[in-house]
Design brief:
- The complex is a heterotetramer, with 2 copies of chain A and 2 copies of chain B.
- Chain A is an alpha/beta fold.
- Chain A is built from 13 helices and 7 strands.
- Chain B is an alpha/beta fold.
- Chain B has 2 domains: about 180 residues, Rossmann fold, CATH 3.40.50; about 130 residues, Rossmann fold (3-Layer(aba) Sandwich), CATH 3.40.50.920.
- In chain B, about 40% of the residues lie in helices and about 20% in strands.
- In chain B, α3 runs parallel beside α4.
- Chain B is globular and about 60 Å long.
- Classes of the chains: A alpha/beta, B alpha/beta.
- At the A-B interface, loops of A face α12 of B.
- The structure holds thiamine diphosphate (2 copies) and magnesium ion (2 copies).
- One magnesium ion binds next to β4 of chain D.
- One thiamine diphosphate sits at the interface of chains D and C.
Chain lengths: ~350, ~325, ~325, ~350
């Protein structure tokens, strides 16, 4: 799409400052749009009674796609949490693979339909298997990073968590360990102001979890998570620090949670109409779209085309996943332990 | 008496006890404005204010530890753990602290707390929203462990737990919350004593021992086999600790056959203790092996329906075991 | 073969496996310079360096979580929890994470870690340095639970645990560390398979099932009652999970009487599972009730000697139960 | 002893700055000396085989006595850890009561001989029962403080912990909770550079745990824990903050661990002779003694007398405790639950 670029004369745009060519920015944009389309579709499926449970990342896409952009998939590690659909797609999970988990199909590469959807994991992409208990993953990430360091491997580990999750002991223990050993770890806090219904001010006494970084002896930054390029810049610094032995970084990206916590929640019970309206204006995709249009990197027509492509991809994923076979009850007892002799 | 759901029984107990005694307070994730993810605490924050119905940070060890501290300073906390699956981070606070405060201080401190948690599966909760955790705590001296299976018991047992001078783990089966309805006494002093089982069905052919949702599955199974002339006595333990040994042994003395049913993983589940008790103290009454029907030994209940169903000890599996036992 | 202590068996296993496979590493509190509070890791840091023998911060959940992470990235960690009493903060990492990584990922990830912890009492350790914790973990599908009672087994089982592709909880009774001596094979490939019990004494009068220190107490008790013509068969389970069902049932088939001995609190201890197994699958062999001798249901072992002694299931109590059982 | 005061003309001494009269300072000094004498004696008993386990607070006395000085015993709460002998004595535990626990006697008011010595607790003095697992107590302290706040009671809660203990999740969860609710809580970290054998640099990536305070949104200070008056000053500020609704304070007092971790440890295994010698020079008692002598608040003779008094008190405590009856094995099963009908 680079033929459509029309950079305004005389000014250096943010993506240029970052040395990004138009394709790179558009690729990220596309990832966000695809994630959003998939995410929206799963809510439709939920309302139709075809997906018993969904939990989504709408509003978090810019932070996730920027974080993914600094990783080398299959080399660096991602230890995500349930909102990270855009992150996982950007790291190589396909739309169909995701839909297989939404429908809990046998082929679902994450868990064979054993886990709830959005409990990500994909071995080939080094997306580590995750669970529901909040914050346990952060400690695994520290362990992976420790192994990388001890084994002398050039690997960086990204882990993500909500701001609520930073209240857990595991988060603290992992941050401290990572700081003591100056591990190649980045902890991205996706701060959407709520932990289900619990607002930020009841969760912590500071504005940003990143304020805790110095208390561990590590670098910390708070960034506007609705601004893809701003997050990208911060993540680049973090990943360079990690690669060069400078130790871990704690990044807090301020994002918006567009949907209720999950399909079992209704956020209108605890957020006012007014608050919801203001919040919904913080759309990272709209924002990037505006930027791209303004920068002349995108036209309305190209955008329509892109949306259609994404929708088609989603349609296909849904259809194919829907048709895939359900798990066999006879497999219930498989993989509790390694198979004998395996 | 009005017919209510089990979760209404829970809510009424909390409401009445908070109204009766201003030391009683509730804490947990989302218990305030939202009223809890299952709405067990709905309306309480409006009524009693945010200090007595506190939305805590996301930290289970903190929830239980703060509950303990508040009890040391004169309050009576009812801590909600959002799902029993997420109680594990609080294991140390429960087992090392709450359970031992009285014993280790030789009686000079005590810890009157209640920890409530929804447990159990069959609600497409997947590996981490379906677990049974009662065996871990029923093993711990110093704790009491209670599981209601009817709305009236939910209310009466919870009220008794709140008034109990020792720490009580109160587990509510998620699937019973709205499925199970029944009459609930309006009486503000409707208390069901901890440590007493209830005989839910009289019978002479065999004794079937269960708790929580499984009580209902056993009753269904008993109905199935009754047509074949097998009369199962169904005992709902209600308290696992203290355990109503007499109720169990009296029944087995009568029936000479025992079946224990639980949803938790078979190996090392609390049903093992019930079996061991019968095998030592009730051995002379027995005419047949002690059978158990329980969840299989897999880490937990899968999310997908076919495997979730395969995991669940349902009425059919239980009825089959009843037939086998009766025919022995 | 040289005669060694049990803790020497542990140390040799670690040393040999670290020498054999550079992926193996050790982490825990004080395991480095100090060599562990019981000196299980003495000398290892000098030999293998501080990265592979790591003194961690004081944080058990971190120790286990980091172990898990390192296993996901190609290492084989042996995490030491300083005392089993302090493993509780890591409960969530062990039960929700380590035990389920294989299952929840449908086999696409695995978690080959070993968690070692000294447990048990009789060492004036008081309420928090004496506990038995094996029942909590033997209940958890996805984990293996191993307890050696001899130096040779300590070595062979630990080596097997390190080579096992799944998470293994390895509990060592503190009192056996220096008290129990025995020949230890020098062979670098001396492996004792997990899941196989050992018959420590042959007998026909009754079957006595135990693990850890209690194995030795049972053997002493068996010697006491042998003079009276009671020949106890003593089975050392060695693995609680997987459990050697055949060894247990074969012996009970022969003796028709079963006694289960454990130091942990009676109610809900792992002996309940052994009893339940015999009561279902071995019922036909039985001529007597299944007896248990175990720790009383108090939160833990007091520090003062009179109450510590009163807690302990010692040879006299066991011998008394053997007599009772044989006379039935 | 106030007749012995000889304040040097013209200069205001540190205790005067704090508005302390000589008696107040001497009382604190006496508490430190008594704690040290008791502590030393228990090691002797241990070596004689009369006390199977001891763990001590030698080197920590100034910080503890200063902390106790700002509390109102029986009104404010203390939630201590095992090194806090001086703290507990200052709050009203008697030497005899402590020795009853060393000998594990039935009368031991802490636990009736059930717990290891130094697992403090004394109901009448509002010293809360404590256990061995590190850091659990800090969460209880937060809960006590929450109750005080909600019930509108004018109570302050002090809790103590080693620097190693700050690595635990429970510590983090409690600090966060206390900060969110601006609780009347003081957390005193007694930082003695080691957690058994694990040195500070492997425990955390910062010089002082107090650097974490701002990350919770609370006040934090690091203080020389060998300087009684310096700690007192910091603790006064903290307690005033707590009383006036200003929320919690995190204080890190740098102290020295004179003894091995416990009677089961030998610190020569992991600390060099040189390090040990330097460390042993950081004696808070010697330091205060020097100050008192210089300030003319104490004479050598008065000091000798004081030491003799303390020794006599220890002798008496040991003798009386030694003679007290051991617990009855028949009581093993008491107090698991409240007595029926109690
Ligand atoms: C240990 C634990 N406790 C409770 C829960 C239930 N729960 C799931 S998500 C959630 C809120 C998480 O909030 P936050 O960390 O801010 O992430 P967000 O969902 O806002 O992205 C809670 C309480 C859980 N999964 N794990
Ligand atoms: C949860 C837990 N893990 C391990 C231990 C064993 N242990 C007792 S004290 C201690 C070191 C504590 O160090 P620190 O907190 O610095 O306090 P200090 O002893 O130096 O005063 C350890 C590891 C314990 N008691 N609790
Ligand atoms: Mg959030
Ligand atoms: Mg220390």
């Amino acid at each position: 799409m680079s033929e459509e670029v029309k950079a305004p004369a005389g000014t250096r745009m943010a993506h240029e400052e970052l040395g990004l060519d138009p394709d790179a920015v558009l690729t990220m944009y596309r990832r966000m749009v695809l994630a959003r389309a998939l995410d929206r579709r799963m809510w439709v499926l939920n309302r139709q009674g075809r997906a018993p449970f969904v939990i989504s990342g709408q509003g978090h896409e810019a932070a996730q796609v920027a974080a993914a952009a600094v990783l080398r998939p299959g080399v660096d590690w991602a230890v995500p949490y349930y909102r990270d659909l855009a992150l996982c797609l950007a790291l190589g999970m396909t739309a169909r693979e995701f839909m297989l988990s939404v429908f809990a199909r046998a082929e679902d590469p994450t868990s064979g339909g054993r886990q709830m959807p959005s409990h990500f994991g994909l071995a080939r992409a080094r997306i580590v298997t995750t669970s529901s208990p909040v914050a346990t993953q952060v400690v695994h990430a520290a362990g992976i990073a420790y192994a990388a360091k001890v084994r002398g491997l050039d690997e960086v580990v990204l882990t993500t968590i909500g701001e609520g999750g930073t209240s857990k002991g595991d988060w603290h223990e992992a941050m401290n360990f990572a700081a003591v050993h100056r591990l190649p770890l980045i902890c991205l806090v996706e701060d959407n102001d709520y932990a289900i219904s619990v607002p930020h001010r009841l969760q912590m006494g500071v504005d940003s979890a990143a304020e805790r970084a110095s208390g561990y002896g590590m670098a910390g930054t708070t960034v506007d998570g609705g601004d893809l390029l701003a997050v990208l810049k911060v993540m680049r610094t973090a990943v360079e620090r990690a690669r060069s032995g400078g130790g871990p970084t704690l990044v807090c990206a301020k994002v918006a949670r567009f949907t209720s916590h999950s399909s079992d929640d209704d956020q209108r019970r605890y957020r006012s109409q007014e608050e919801l309206e203001t919040m919904l204006r913080r759309d990272p995709i709209e924002r990037l779209r505006g930027y791209l249009l303004e920068a002349g990197l995108l036209t309305e027509e190209a955008d329509d085309r892109l949306l259609q492509e994404c929708t088609a991809e989603v349609d296909e994923a849904v259809q194919s996943a829907q048709e895939a076979p359900a798990p066999d009850p006879a497999d219930l007892e498989r993989h509790v332990y390694a198979a004998e002799g395996a | 008496m009005a017919v209510k759901t089990l979760i209404e029984g829970v809510r009424e107990a909390l409401d009445e006890e908070m109204a009766r005694d201003e030391r009683v307070w509730v804490l947990g994730e989302d218990v305030g404005r939202k009223g809890g993810v299952f709405l067990a605490t709905e309306g309480l924050q409006e009524k009693y204010g945010p200090s007595r119905v506190l939305d805590t940070p996301l930290a289970e060890s903190c929830i239980v530890g703060v509950a303990i501290g508040s009890a040391l300073n004169g309050m009576i906390p009812v801590a909600e753990i959002q799902f029993a699956d997420f109680i594990h981070p609080a294991f140390d606070q429960i087992v090392s602290e709450a359970a031992r405060i009285r014993y280790r201080s030789n009686g000079s401190f005590s810890c009157p707390i209640v920890v409530r948690a929804p447990f159990g599966g069959g609600v497409h909760g997947g590996l981490y929203h379906s677990q049974s955790v009662e065996a871990f705590y029923a093993h711990v001296p110093g704790l009491k462990v209670v599981i209601p299976s009817t709305p009236a018991d939910a209310k009466g047992l919870l009220k008794a737990a709140i008034r109990d001078p020792d720490p009580v783990m109160f587990f509510e089966h998620k699937k019973t919350y709205r499925l199970v309805r029944g009459e609930v006494p309006e009486d503000g002093d409707h208390l069901v004593p901890l440590g007493r089982a209830a005989i839910r069905r009289q019978g002479t052919s065999l004794t079937c021992i269960a708790w929580g949702l499984m009580t209902h599955h056993c009753l269904e199974a008993a109905d199935q086999v009754a047509a074949e002339g097998i009369e199962a006595e169904v005992i709902d333990l209600r308290s696992l600790r203290p355990l109503d040994r007499d109720a169990i042994l009296d029944s087995v003395r009568k029936t000479a056959r025992a079946l224990i049913v639980y949803e938790d993983n078979l190996t090392g589940g609390f049903g093992a203790e019930v079996a061991a008790l019968i095998a030592s103290d009730g051995f002379e009454y027995l005419d047949a092996p002690i059978l158990r029907v329980a969840g299989p030994d897999v880490p937990a209940m899968p999310f997908n329906k076919p495997q979730e169903d395969a995991f669940m000890p349902g009425p059919d599996k239980i009825a089959a075991a009843m037939r086998k036992l009766a025919a022995y």
